[in-house]
Design goal:
Distance between the termini: 64 Å
Length: 272
């Protein structure tokens, strides 16, 4: 009976041995695959390029038209504003000087004055639209009313366009001269203000560019400041992308598609 009992235990022992062998084989295979995945992950992580501050910095410098390394601005914003103001005043005062104002005003006074006998006058006839030009002989009255004689011809006041009657009427000349002077002074003042704004904007733009600034959506910023901000921004974008790429590598190299594989970092390299 003892012999039969020992014979019954033998198959159980064999089955247990086979199971243990299979388990050991599975563990060995899993370890082998795990190590293979680790090596593969290390290779793929090593293939990822690191952020190159110099290369990126040179790209940014080129984009903003600056040399590398990007220097600090040559002038402060306050200094630029002061210089632009001074240069604007010089140019504006030259273009809209008192001399220019006086000359133009004198020309108006001369043009819109009563014509004297012997002066060459020019006016337009109402009915025909013809322009009459010639020496003024004088202003006369007869039973038909007032008329002017230019050369050897007579021209009745009603036939002359109203805008030219000031030539022969002191009161109209004074009124017309006052109207034109008022309009001229306003245009001169407005023109000076407009020219000043345009000139100053042009000068400021050139000074900023020459001094090492760049225009963003709101204001002028020093090239050096813009460079630092842009470099930091691109480095952060790179790091974010780098994290995503690392995650993809780990995800696609899971053991049996399920188990995360931990990679031990090199001593000189941070852990991934």
């Amino acid at each position: 009976m003892s012999k039969k009992k020992s014979q019954g235990c033998l198959p159980i022992f064999i089955v247990a041995a086979l199971l243990f062998s299979m388990l050991a084989g599975a563990v060995w295979y899993s370890k082998k695959q795990y190590k293979a995945k680790q090596e593969l992950i290390k290779l793929e992580l090593a293939a990822l390029s690191e952020f190159d501050e110099v290369v990126t910095g040179k790209e940014i410098a080129k984009e903003i038209g600056s040399k590398y390394p990007v220097p600090e601005p040559m002038m402060t914003i306050e200094a630029i504003a002061e210089q632009a103001k001074n240069e604007t005043e010089i140019l504006t005062n030259k273009k809209f000087s008192i001399k220019v104002f006086t000359q133009k005003q004198a020309a108006i006074l001369k043009k819109y004055s009563v014509a004297k006998n012997g002066d060459t006058v020019s006016f337009i006839i109402n009915t025909t639209g013809n322009t009459i030009t010639g020496p003024l002989i004088g202003v006369f009255n007869d039973h038909k009313g007032r008329f002017v004689m230019v050369g050897i011809h007579e021209y009745r006041f009603p036939d002359i366009m109203d805008e030219f009657l000031y030539l022969f009427n002191p009161a109209l000349a004074t009124k017309r001269r006052g109207e034109v002077l008022k309009e001229f002074r306003k245009k001169f003042k407005d023109g000076k203000s407009e020219s000043q704004l345009k000139t100053q904007a042009k000068i400021i733009k050139q000074l900023y560019k020459n001094s090492g600034y760049i225009r963003d959506s709101r204001s002028w910023v020093a090239n050096s400041e813009f460079f630092k901000n842009e470099l930091s921004k691109r480095e952060q974008e790179y790091k974010n992308n780098h994290v995503n790429e690392k995650k993809k590598i780990h995800d696609k190299n899971k053991l049996f598609g399920l188990i995360n594989v931990q990679v031990v970092a090199n001593k000189n390299k941070k852990e991934d």
